[in-house]
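pls ignore typos typing on phone
4'-deoxy-4'-aminopyridoxal-5'-phosphate + seq
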Amino acid sequence: MSRVFNFSAGPAILPEEVLQRAREEITDWHGCGMSIMEVSHRGKEFTRVAEQAEADLRELMAIPDNYKVMFLQGGASGQFAMIPLNLMTAEQSADYIDTGAWSERAIAEAKLLGKAKVVGEGRSAVPRQHELALNADAAYLHYTPNETIGGLEFDYIPEAGDVPLVVDMSSNILSRPIDVSRFGLIYAGAQKNIGPAGLVVTIIREDLIGKARPGTPTMLDYKIHADNGSMYNTPPTYSWYLAGLVFDWLKQKGGVAAMAEINQRKAAKLYAAIDGSDFYSNPVAPINRSWMNVPFTLAKPELDGEFLKQADAAGLTSLKGHRSVGGMRASIYNAMPEAGVDALVSFMADFEQRYA
Ligand code: PMP
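k done
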């Protein structure tokens, strides 16, 4: 069977070139006679892979030298706990912007460990800067620049003065250039725009390391991982390797600036198709529509099943919306070719013509 266009929200589509390269290298990595997943994480082979991946990510995102990059486990959800454990004392509180399901998860976790104040909310549009009730003594301000389920994306970086910005970039990291120096901590589960699941990348400004509250378990202390180059224990080596292949692929494609252009174009085509019809709709304010995750509903929800079935048969898979919201969702990460979006748009037009 040939490859389909996979619109899954995560684990998600990977570039075909990356998968081909992984296939070529799987039994014999660069003539060492072993797969890279069979070798010691401390050996020269994996050290080379790990260092190159970090260097490439630093180059792609223009990460300043005073930031550490960590390749960790526990997913983005693990970071929901590591962040309060490391950045706020039990007496302090942190500010959180709530723009959807993943913000809610982060807030709930922070509340287990301290005080989390919701300083702004939105579901179909993000709160504007002047609407944020920020606290100058907050340990940090956390927000989710792209809500994967709601398809809601910030169009600006909140300004919080001296309060460090902490962001869950799981579903929009590497989708465009960003100014890393605006943030205290950036984290992203890998399984969307970075690589396979099992890895979370955390980029942290050095002055925020070494502040874990007393009693923090060793594995949840950023300082342990920073001091040990993410090798305090055995890291997810194969996921790290594949992330490195994706970074290399991104560099060959012209980096995040080139991706941004393509991503914007792909998203614009899909939203134009939705807006240009009475059959499909998306509830998000145009300025906050995600470039990565495009939820949409049909005017006749009783046709959802038929839509999915026929899309699947046309090689357009994993379009079912999140179970909490229903409808459809097309995730169009970096690895989704523009041809995939074109194919979806024409399928949608054809389906509408037959069923509207
Ligand atoms: N944050 C966001 C924005 C996400 O999309 C997800 C996963 N879909 C998570 C957090 C949770 O990630 P993980 O499964 O890696 O814990």
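The mean pLDDT is 97. The two ends are 32 Å apart (CA to CA). more later
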